[in-house]
Amino acid sequence: MQEECLLTMRGIEKRFPGVLALNGVDFSLRKGEIHALMGENGAGKSTLIKVLTGVYQMDGGEIRLDGESIVIRSPEDAQNKGISTVYQEITLCPNLTVSENMFIGRKSGFVIRHKDREKRADEILERLGIPARSTQLLGNCSLAVQQMVAIARAVDMQCKVLILDEPTSSLDDNEVQMLFKLMRDLRAQGVGIIFVTHFLEQVYEVSDRITVLRNGELVGEYLTEELPQVQLVSKMIGKELEELSNLGDGDEEKIMEREVFYEAKGLSSSEAMPFDFSIRKGEVNGFTGLLGSGRSESVRAIFGADKVNGGTVTVKGEPVKITRPVDAMRHGIGYLAEDRKRDGIIADLSVRENIILALQVMNGLFKPISRSESEAFADEYIKALNIKTASRETPVGSLSGGNQQKVILARWLLTHPDYLILDEPTRGIDVGTKLEIQKLVRKLSEEGMSVTFISSEVEEMLRTCSRLIVMRDRHIVGELTGKDLNQTQVMKTIAGGEA
Amino acid sequence: MMKKLFKRKEPLTDTQLLMTITIGIFCIMYLLAMILLGGGFLRPQQIFDMLNDNASLIIVSCGLTIVMIGGGIDISVGAVTSLVVMSCAIYLNKGGNIFLSILLAVGIGLAFGLVQGFLISYLEIQPFIVTLAGMFFARGMTTILSVDPQKVTHKGFLQLHNNKEIKIRWLGHRVPNGNVIPAEMEIGVIIALSIVILVFLLLKYGRLGRNFYAMGGNQQSALMLGINVKKTRFLSYVICGLLSGISGYVFLMHTAAGNATNAAGMEMNAIASSIIGGTLLTGGVGNVIGTFFGTLSLTTIKKIVVSSGLNDPWWQSITTGGMLCFFILLQSVVLGRRSKKKET
Predict the structure, then answer these.
(1) Taking CB atoms and an 8 Å limit, are A94 and B10 in contact across chains?
(2) CATH classification for the domain delimited by A5-227, as one of 3.40.50.720, 3.40.50.300, 3.30.230.10, 3.40.50.150
């Protein structure tokens, strides 16, 4: 067993300030296998990959390649040792030809013989069955072919270990099949492939072995055929079974009788597949599914944050058009974005300014909110949400993550929305604040606000929502209410019907 | 060239497409001028005049094209040219040696390229800011050297200056009394054309040249592909500075006088030439042959304006501006249609 191992990583540790990102993780890759690396957000997959590709230096542990202990200093060093990575975003130059992309940056003379290179590139492309011509401009190739060219470059650089980081997330089904064929061919040639993806079905289709990480620790290594999909999901999510408090049945029936606040039929956007969705007044529902299953994309479509392509939307029974965030806000919909650094807070502005931002947008530029008014609003919400800040004029950037999140929450509450979408509101914040936010959501719904809640933690969703919409691979695959609202059922639905 | 274009299996790249458009428009413009205005445009000398007057602009534009392909900008080129002209004029008037004056020109250009390239590449300061500072610095230095025009009196240099033309008899024209006045081309034009060809070869077949394109196309990717981006960017500014130095010397050979206002606005004309020639300000796309025809187009339109009797200088500026606008619009329309076609 040990002899055939191409790459072994033993007891890998990586520490970031305050966090142990990898805690003694083992990983081994055999010659000629496709090995899926699985785990939810924060599980440590990308950290492990970055250690292996030399982006990060490990704090402890050992890496052996072909039985020899190695130290990887930089991405370039990793490439020279035969470890190549193809990233999700294509790191090639679209303005150059295919053959140039395969050879540029590698050792060569000062004068380039295009003809020789093109000939050699064509040979490699043909051998690997990649449908591209060497003289073609890379930018004219489909994304899948571009990805394959990146792989061809790696193969020509004599790589032993090929890391594919989320290679399929922007490909359609046909392109995925093309990529898989190439992966199988390379496996037959003895290359060890590490395949990182969020798509469960693809893992089962193409991989031989699965390693699961959770919270920076190794959960285990399994043969793909011996690990049913449900078990994989439960291993990824983890079973931290606590006493689950749901909304009572009685409550729920009452909710089902209330009027529908928002309804979408066949709504689709540039990022989301068409889906149907509705929410009643005072209801708390949630989208669940693994990362990349399309939950955020769906709620972004509801809010008009991405380009909306089609579908009909009614708010309080009236047909409306929501194509921009400001439309959604005018109809009483608020959205708390997933990535608060990018979409949410403006770090240099003060707490007060961040809080009044959405209200100001709603009012329009010509109806400014007076200073005294805005100070009153800020004080009110700092108190109501228990935001820990030195003063209302402190820049938001200096607050802790949980408190930043509360500032954004305050921003939306100030606009008195009828319907609030919370996308991962509890990510990266401490447990105490998490509970506060969960309680707040329940309280708001009792006051008649509709809330859609998204979280990577199933347990949190179960505690907060009365209806769960389950997504897998960008489609809604189930809706759970009442008795079905339990962890086992959620996992079964995420993993697919078979179990 | 055309034959090769038609035979290609691959669709034209953006670079080739934009260059073809420029060459096409230049030919149409020149033909129209020949038909409608006649006169000077019917004589080959017209083209040689355009080249003689603009040899240094062509050289500077080549350097700028390299920088722009790499995704940068250098607005100090005109001022550096001017500084070189003035320095060499003064040096020669003090009884300097011609060979050393050439070294001086190249040295000043290189010095600017090295310093600016270092600041931009290794200290990662915005190229616009760095070269703006370089521009002010060079302009200031020129004025410090001499506020008054410096006419070169160096005998050897004047001999070079006066005998600089290469006479081409068969391209000359016959005057009414039966004599043939030969077409005349300056040595500077030969230098400029050689530089165009050298830069073309560098960009097409040189490892460095291809790295410029990769860097301009996507800097992050270039880095991941193993290109030393900092060094590549540094070299692009060094070459540009070097060419500014050479351009200054060619300028002096043409005028034989240094003047504080020499080459005023040349950097903007060079940027315009590059853009008209199909170089994108965003980097990664461009071709020095296109730039060459860009300069010619720019000059032709100015000549047309003058020949049409609109002699005031602002008419030239207005038409230059209009033409630049037209080309940029055309480029974005053509490239926009292309990417749309690709999506469907």
Answers:
(1) no
(2) 3.40.50.300
* Helical H segments across A311-455, by residue range: 325-330, 351-363, 371-384, 401-414, 431-446
Distance CA A72, CA A56 (A): 9
Q: Tokens at residue A219, please?
A: 């959960």
Residue B261, number of CB atoms within 10 A of its CB: 11
ipTM: 0.80
CB B49 within 8 A of CB B186: no
CB contacts, 8 Å: A115 with chain B = none
Shortest CA gap A101–chain B (Å): 8
**Phi first, then psi: what are they for A69, rounded to 5°?**
-70, 130
- B173 compared with A489, residue with greater pLDDT: A489
> Is the pLDDT assigned to residue A475 strictly greater than 60?
yes
Mean pLDDT, residues B300-325? 83
Residues in chain A whose beta carbon is closer than 8 A to a beta carbon of chain B?
A: 75-76, 79, 87, 90-96, 100-101, 104-106, 108-114, 133, 135-137, 140
Instruction: Copy the structure tokens of residue B88.
Output: 């060499």
**pLDDT above 70: residue B87:** yes
CB spacing of B206 vs A109 below 8 angstroms: no
**Which residues of chain B does A79 touch, with a Cβ-Cβ cutoff of 8 Å?**
226
Residue B328 has pLDDT above 60, yes or no: yes
The CA-atom distances, in angstroms, between A86 and each of A146, A183, B69, B215 are: 10, 12, 26, 19
| Terminal Cα distance for chain A, rounded | 31
Question: Could you tell me which residues are beta bridge partners of residue A471?
Answer: A476
Give mean pLDDT, residues B160-186: 73
Least confident residue range of A176-185, A428-437, B147-156: A428-437
Pairing of strands A467-472, A284-288: parallel
Which among B92, B79, B49 is positioned nearest to B252, based on CA atoms?
Answer: B92
Q: Is the pLDDT of residue B69 over 80?
A: yes
Hey, are the CB atoms on A93 and B10 less than 8 Å from each other? Answer: no
Cross-chain Cβ contact A104/B11 below 8 Å: no
Q: Do B221 and A104 touch (CB under 8 A)?
A: no
Q: How far is B74 from chain A, CA to nearest CA, in Å? A: 22
Q: Which residues pair with B255 in a beta bridge?
A: none
Domain layout of chain A by residue ranges: 5-227, 253-495
A346: how many CB neighbours lie within 10 A of its CB?
Answer: 12
Read off the pTM.
0.72
Superfamily of domain A253-495: P-loop containing nucleotide triphosphate hydrolases (3.40.50.300)
